[in-house]
Amino acid sequence: MNQPAIEQPSVIFLKDYEAPAFLVEQTDLRFELEEEQTLVRSQVRYSRNPASVNRQRPLVLDGHESLDLQRLSIDGEVLCAQDYRREGEQLTIPELPDSFTLECVTRIEPQNNTALEGLYKSDGMFCTQCEAEGFRRITFYQDRPDVMTLFETTIVADKQLYPVLLSNGNLIDSGDEEGGRHWVRWQDPFPKPAYLFALVAGNLQCIEDRYTTCSGRQIVLKIFAEAKDLDKLDYAMTSLKHSMQWDEQVYGREYDLDIFMIVAVDFFNMGAMENKGLNIFNTSCVLAHPQTTVDAGFQRVEGVVAHEYFHNWSGNRVTCRDWFQLSLKEGFTVFRDSEFSADMNSRTVKRIEDVTLLRTAQFAEDAGPMAHPVRPASFIEISNFYTLTVYEKGCEVVRMLHTLLGADTFRKGSDLYFDRHDGQAVTTDDFVQAMADVSGRDMSRFKLWYSQSGTPKVSVTGEYDAQNQRYTLHMHQSCPASADMASKQPFLIPVAIGLLDPQGDDIPLNGGATTEVLELLATEQSFVFDNISVEPVPSLLRGFSAPVKLKFPYSREQLVFLMQHDSDGFNRWDAAQQLAVGIMSELIGDYQQGKELILDPALVNAYGEVLSNQRLDKAMVAKVLTLPSEAYLSELADEIDVEAIYNVRRFIRGSIAEALEPVFLQVYQDNNLTEDYSPDAQSVARRSLKNLSLAYLMATEKEDYLELARQQFELANNMTDSQAALTLIAHSENQDAATEVLEAFYQRWQNESLVVNQWLGVQASDPKAGALVRVKALIEHQAYDATNPNKIRSLIAVFCAQNMLNFHNSDGSGYRFLADHIIVLNKQNPQIASRLITPLTRWKKFPAERSAMMKAELERISASGDLSRDVYEVLSKSLAG
Ligand code: B3K
Ligand code: ZN
Question: Which residues in 486-600 belong to E strands, given as ranges?
Fold first, then answer.
């Protein structure tokens, strides 16, 4: 039987924001950690907020239902049940003086906390995750980011089980107690909101280093992990030091505490968390070793270490007023880490990777049922808004400010922002205001990027007037209705452009430069270029200067020309993408009509030229020769035809492979170096080109190349090469070979949890028929742990989001499988459950039969009862309308 409809969770609106009724002057916490329970005593000094609208307002504290309240006292007087009200997630104390100290003792059970929010246990160690609203699972508090205060934290625990006890700030005291217990006291000298609080207790080891800041202060750097992972921490340490230096050089930001710590934990909902002075990381974002980590993993560690470190200013010193402002810290910090990675590695390649993610996943989010602006106007559960829109589109919005203002003015703006708001909790408007103040520009139109959802479309045509030597670009912008917003006003869109002459050289533009940033403000607007003596080919949206879908009626010849000549590296790649997308779309149409597939030789020729061009950066060659993904083609399609997309892609890959086989083999051999592993950009580029070549060779389905892949699998001295070969063999039609390498790989790496995750992922993404049966068998495998988010992501999320053919099996088995798991996870770990649903929420984009089955599974989850706020919100939005 279905359960009766539960009380509907309420919607929280940005427009209802009110300043907190009370300010907090000091928060002292004491944790007694035990195996069966943890006692938390908080002593908090409150005073009425002079800025609060109503001076009679009661004190309303947030507290999760799981909190077992043991004692509450005000200035030493114990409160009895009539003195306060506890309802749902709130505790209200009506009669209060203007200032007082509230003491509160709660009893919690971190060992049973499977939501991994608040204080929980991960592999025998205690750790916390308080953003966004996890602190209310520890004690009763005004759990909101605009309540900032000084924290002092005492931790008491068994000395043998938990020799390392950490919290934010500086260690100020410690000692031993009876019964084999010990205690420590940490003091954080910087005021912070509760979401930045952290505690760690465990049997950990660390590597230690030092960094001297620009003003000559010595900072102690420590990275903690379990003893077995101690040899995988060096890359994170190097990345941390690079980040500290980069933030001084590029943003003038110096680190403020005397110690900076990172702790690696294996059970974590997200990538990492920027707690003040004590970052907590998912092992997947901090551990790196050539033997166990692929190139992309090294780059992820570098990027995430930088991201969390950069938050110390963009997020911690200046934080968010409320959670609607999340992109204030996240969009800006993603922009900062993205520029850092661009400086450390290849700028163009980093740009291609970021844009690929944005265009495949964020554009799909903007077009789906969860569409929301970079600064949402409402939410039911804030955890659902740690999205690609808030992070990646938010980063693009900051990047547009950088493009419009130029690097120097942008830096003046960020200096002003940090100075003006240091120690405050502010809004995205405050950020834009700082940029407006230093540039003298009116930014009101620009702010629509924060308040309007949806991906704008820009269509462009060119007109050449030979007589007057004049070239005109006509632009038209529009933005389709989104699930949350029907009509939109025109955006301010920076469109960076260049004009190429027939030789492929940049033509100097009106101001003399070869790239100009046009500002498209109106729905229709034309831009005129004089002294253009031949008809040019325009290079549009250079560097992807705005998160829009731009269309220009290029011929295939023009795209090939841009691929070869555009001085903008990103646009050379994008021309190749547009060429491939055009050809693929046409073939998808042919496939649907049962026509014979014939590949336009333009693509093979263009790829062949790029592949043989020795002058090109190898990473770029690999990117250019990577066909648009199934996910990207799905995003572009009005209705997704899974089989057509898969089969056309496979046909094209095979045709290219056959046409260019000798070249691929040559490139493979030239780049198959056996030197020691290094994660530097050049070596990464060589490996990516080599493994791309191997993938094409395997696409010929010749036995020789299976042998070549086997050789690589056996001889590889690093995980990048080993995993590339493993994936190709495992996904090949040869099931015996697949089984053999998968077994060998598992035998070798079964004790390395992160490598086992890769092994799960390779099997989950296998396009061969029957993948779901194998995935189900893996759920029973000893290597799987149904409570560990990394395992769930590697197996279930990879199968449902990356294995299009099998997940969308026409018998509906993939949909049922996902729904079954959501129903369990909804109770166990709502955050993970609600993220995992995403593939089903896109049901409207599929043909009727599949669409109906997907919707039915969403309804089944909905009827399963006891929905968490997280899952409820996604379901209700997906099923609406
Ligand atoms: N700020 C954290 C995100 C925490 C999410 C909690 N549900 C990671 C980051 O963006 O740095
Ligand atoms: Zn962040």
Answer: 493-500, 516-520, 524-529, 537-539, 549-551
CA 280-285-286 angle, to 5 degrees, is 70
Torsion of CA 826, 850, 355, 235, to 10 degrees: 40
Distance 334 CA to ligand 2 centre (A): 7
Rounded CA-CA distance 592/743 in Å is 39
Query: Which positions are annotated as active-site residues?
Result: 308
831 CA closest ligand 1 atom index: 7
pLDDT of residue 850: 98
Please tell me if the CB atom of residue 308 comes closer than 6 angstroms to any atom of ligand 1: yes
307 lines ligand 1 (CB under 6 A): yes
Question: Is residue 392 within 6 Å of ligand 1 at its C-beta?
Answer: no
CB-ligand 1 contact for 270 (6 Å cutoff): yes
CB within 8 Å of 262: residues ≥ 6 apart? 222, 223, 224, 236, 240, 279, 280, 281, 286, 305, 308
Please compute, for residue 709, the number of CA atoms within 13 A of its CA located in the half-sphere on the CB side: 31
For the chain, helix, strand, coil in percent to 5 are 45, 20, 35
pLDDT of 17 reads 98
- CA 129-134-135 angle, 5° bins: 100
CA–CA dist 714, 689 (Å, integer): 19
Q: What is the pTM of this model?
A: 0.98
Question: Can you give the length of the chain in residues?
Answer: 881
Alpha-carbon distance of 320 to 328, in angstroms, equals 7
Most informative mutation of 130, 276, 305, 386 for ligand 1 (most atoms within 8 A of CB): 386
- Block mean pLDDT (10 aa), the chain, length 881: 60 97 98 98 97 88 98 98 97 95 98 98 97 98 98 99 98 98 98 99 98 98 98 98 99 98 98 99 98 98 99 99 99 99 97 98 98 98 98 99 98 99 98 98 98 98 98 98 98 98 96 95 98 98 99 98 98 98 98 98 98 94 98 98 98 98 98 92 97 98 98 97 98 97 98 98 98 98 98 98 98 98 98 98 98 98 97 98 72
Closest-lying ligand 1 atom to the alpha carbon of residue 308: 11
Q: What pLDDT, on a 0 to 100 scale, did the predictor assign at position 881?
A: 72
Burial of 602 by CB count in 10 Å (0-12 exposed, 13-18 middle, 19+ buried)? Answer: middle
Q: Which long-range contacts (CB under 8 A, 24 or more apart) does 462-467 make?
A: 462/536, 462/538, 462/552, 464/532, 464/535, 464/536, 466/535
Residue closest to 183 by CA, chosen among 30, 322, 334, 37? 30
pLDDT of residue 7: 63
Tell whether ligand 1 has an atom less than 6 A from the beta carbon of residue 572: no
Structure tokens at 532: 């253009």
Whose tokens are 């050049």? That residue is 682
Which residue's alpha carbon is at the smallest distance from atom 8 of ligand 1? Answer: 273
| 376 CA distance to ligand 1 middle (Å) | 17
DSSP label of 57: P
C-alpha to C-alpha distance for 591 and 585, rounded to whole angstroms: 10
Q: Name the residue at shortest CA distance from atom 9 of ligand 1.
A: 273
336 Cβ below 6 A of ligand 1: no
Q: Which two tokens stand for residue 825?
A: 């996870």
pLDDT at residue number 56:
87
Q: How far apart are CA 410 and CA 428, in angstroms?
A: 15
Cα separation, 91 vs 142, whole angstroms: 10
Question: Which residue minimizes the CA distance to atom 5 of ligand 1?
Answer: 131
The pair of structure tokens assigned to 862 is 């909905």
DSSP character string of 380-421: S-GGGG-SHIIIIIHHHHHHHHHHHH-HHHHHHHHHHHHHHH
132 C-beta closer than 6 A to ligand 1: yes
- Whole-number Å distance, alpha carbon 827 to ligand 1 midpoint, is 21
Question: Atom 6, ligand 1: which residue's CA is nearest?
Answer: 131
What pLDDT sits at residue 2?
43
